[in-house]
Specification:
By secondary structure, the chain is of the alpha/beta class. It has nine helices and seven strands, in the order βαβαβαβαβααβαααβ. β2, α2 and β3 form a beta-alpha-beta unit.
Length: 239
């Protein structure tokens, strides 16, 4: 059984990805930073449905804590599927943005990508098979007012994805990113009323976490072995 780590697995999109990978027969590590109780609940739900899952808690920004947690996972064998889904918003127009707002958002999405992915690469290379998928955002492709920090962090993932794909192409490992647009969640409902969604999204609706999870699940599958170095949008024809 191949093993998968989903960072930010306790959130809406992350939970859907965890459930999809488990349904595909993977053992899933459901990661959380502060919401460890929710990660445990999702892992329990997966196991109750006949899947295999373990909840793990660590801060992806903390390099030492990440390495320690990853070593414990690697003691059980290589992790061959990594979904870098952890990310945060801390919005402000740039003239009013505080340095800590800039740094924290970059730390979680971009430095977190390095802190989690890099220690897993050599064990993965040894298996000659792997899938690395990072969850980006339409904001990285188009920009978004009040989100220079978020757009910069996610756009950084795009460059890292393309470079790492080249480094690992001969090792049977693919590296891709998905860039969701407006995805239904409790936060989305507050920020994007239906009339705004109809104006912004040609399909006139928000996407679902399951639709994002299905795309990630495909990219993590055997069938996607010739897809690498790609940034794949899922946004209802927004761009």
């Amino acid at each position: 059984m191949k093993r998968a780590l989903v960072t930010g697995g306790s959130g809406g999109i992350g939970a859907a990805i965890c459930r999809r990978l488990a349904a595909d027969g993977r053992h899933v590590y459901v990661h959380a930073n502060t919401n460890s109780e929710e990660a445990r609940r999702i892992a329990s739900d997966i196991e109750a449905a006949g899947g295999s899952a373990t909840a793990v808690t660590f801060d992806v920004v903390d390099r030492s804590a990440s390495e320690a947690a990853l070593r414990r996972m690697l003691d059980e064998g290589p992790i061959q599927i990594v979904v870098n889904n952890a990310g945060i918003h801390d919005d402000a127009v740039m003239p009013a943005m505080k340095p800590e707002q800039w740094s924290r958002v970059i730390d979680v999405s971009l430095n977190g990508f390095f802190n989690v992915t890099q220690p897993l690469l050599m064990p993965m290379i040894g298996t000659r098979w792997g899938r690395i998928v990072s969850v980006s955002s339409v904001a990285a492709l188009t920009g978004n007012r009040g989100q220079t920090n978020y757009a910069a962090a996610k756009a950084g993932l795009h460059g890292a994805t393309k470079a790492l794909a080249l480094e690992l192409a001969s090792r049977g490992i693919t590296v891709n990113a998905v860039a969701p647009g407006i995805i239904a969640s409790s936060m989305t409902e507050r920020v994007f009323p239906q009339e705004a969604i109809e104006r912004l999204v040609p399909m006139k609706r928000a996407g679902s976490p399951q639709e994002v999870a299905d795309l990630v699940g495909f990219l993590a599958s055997e069938q996607a072995g010739y897809i690498s170095g790609q940034i794949i949008s899922i946004n209802g024809a927004m761009i």
